[in-house]
Amino acid sequence: MKLQKIVNRLQKLHPKEIDLSLDRIKNLCKKLDNPQDKIKAISVVGTNGKNSTIQACFAILKAANIKCNVYTSPHIQKINERFVYNNKELTDDELVSLFEIVEEANSNEPITFFEILTACYFYQAAKYPNNINLIETGLFHRFDATNILNKNLASIVTSISLDHLDWLPKDQQDVEKIIFEKTSALLNSNIIVAKQRDIKTTECIKNTIAKNQSNKYFFNEDFSFSEGKNRFFYYEDKFGGLKLPAPNVLGQFQLENISSAIATLRILDFEIKDEQIKKGITDIKSIARLQEIKSGKLKNLVKNNILLVDGSHNEDGSIALNNYLNSLNCKKHLIIGMMANKEHEKYISYFKDITSLTTIDIPNQPNSIKGEELKEKFKNIKNTNYSDSIENALKSINPEQGDLILITGSLYLAGEVLNQN
Predict the structure, then answer these.
(1) Largest distance between two CA atoms of the chain
(2) Contact indicator for 258, 56 with CB cutoff of 8 Å
(3) In angstroms, rounded to a whole number, what is the distance separating the alpha carbons of residues 25 and 242?
(4) What is residue 316's predicted lDDT score, i.e. its pLDDT?
(5) Which residues of the chain have pLDDT under 70?
(6) What top-level class would CATH report for the domain 291-420?
(7) What is the pLDDT of residues 351-386, one digit of tens each?
C-alpha cells in the first residue's frame, strides 16, 4: 500500500506521461551527485527485441558469476521488475526507501514518471560501481531519460521498425526518422547492430552512425548464426564458432537477440567461457515474450492445450510472432487486445492461419482500444468475435485437443493475463 501511494504521487508530478526533454532528469541527477557518471553500462536501443536481448545478456553474465543491475520498461506485472541490483529485484520496502530519497531531492519539481524512475535507477546503481548495468531505452533514444550517460561500454541496436509514430511530426513518420532518433546520439564506445528486417534498414543505420567514432559490429558482417539440426544452433564471430544448445525461449527471433548478446559480451572481453554461454542461454527469463503459461487459473480453462502470451504490438513483432506460429502444425486461436495508438490492421494482417479470433478490452488501460471497436476493424477476418473479459474469451473458444491458444497485442494485456492467472 505504501509503495502504491508513492507511485501515485510520482505519477502526478508532470501533466504529461511523456515530454521529450533531458533537462528535468539532468537537473534532478545533478542534485543526486550525477550517479549516472559512476556506473558501467551497456545501453540497448531499438524497436523490438530490447528486453529479450537484455535478458540474454543477463543470463550469460549470471552464468559467468558477474553481478548485474538491470533497468527495463515497462514492467509487466509489478514495478519492482524495473529495478534489479546485484541480480535481484528490489523488495517493496527497498523501493519505497529509494523513491522517497529521490522524491525529496526532486522537491516537487515537474518531472515525468519515467524520468524520475530513471533517476531512481541511476541513484541506486551508483552504489554498485563494479556491476554491469543493462539499460533499456524507452520511447526513442535521443531525448530518452536514459540518454544522460557520458560514457558506456557498448550500445546494442536491436531491430528497428515503425512504432510510436504518433510522437513524430506528420511528415516524418517513417523508419528513417526513427533510426535517426534512436541512433544519432549513440555514445562513442562500441556499437553492435543486430539483424534488421532488410538491407535498407541496416544501410540507413550505417549512414546515421557514420561519423560516430565507435567500434562498429554488424550482423552478417562481424557476427552471425545459423540453425542446425537436433536442437542446436551455430554462432560465429572473429573469436571463433560456437555450437550452442537450443535456448529455453521460443521463436527464431530469439536466436537473433541471443546472438547480439553473445557478440556484445565477447567484444567486451569479460572472459566468459563457452560453457557459461551455453548455460546462460538455457536459463533466460522471458516474461510475455512467447511465454508459455503452464499452470494457474487461466491455464486450467484450456486444460491440456498450449497457452501462450506474447506482448508484441507492432508490425515487426507480428512478423516475428507469425514466423513462429507458421512453424507449428496445429490449429491456432488468437485472443487480442491493443492500445489505441497502434496500427491495428497492419498488425493483424500477418496472421494468415487462424482458426478463431477474439477481441477483448485491456483491463485498467484507458488508452487501449475497445474490444468491440477492434472487432469492427477486423471484420474481414472470418470467425472473429468479441468477449468482455480474458476469462470469458478463453471459455468461448472450446479448442480441440492439440490446439494452441495465443493472447497477444500488448505488453499491458500480457501483464493483466499473468496477474489474473
Answers:
(1) 60
(2) yes
(3) 42
(4) 86
(5) 162-169, 171-173
(6) alpha beta
(7) 988 999 999 999 989 989 999 999 999 988 889 999
Q: How far apart are CA 347 and CA 50, in angstroms?
A: 19
Written in H, E and C, the secondary structure of 363-401 is CCCCCECCHHHHHHHCCCCCCEEECCCHHHHHHHHCCCC
Measured CA to CA in angstroms, residue 202 lies from 49, 153, 218, 267, 298 at distances of 16, 22, 8, 20, 41
Distances (CA, A) of 225 to 50, 220, 236, 390: 18, 8, 6, 38
The count of other CB atoms within 10 Å of the CB of residue 375 is: 19
Distance between CA atoms of 160 and 148, rounded to whole angstroms? 21
Number of other CB atoms surrounding residue 2 within 10 Å: 12
- Determine the residue type at 42: I
Domain at 2-281, CATH from 3.40.1190.10, 2.60.40.10, 3.40.1280.10, 2.40.50.180: 3.40.1190.10
**Integer CA distances (angstroms), 56 to 141, 158, 238, 304, 342, in order:** 21, 13, 20, 29, 27
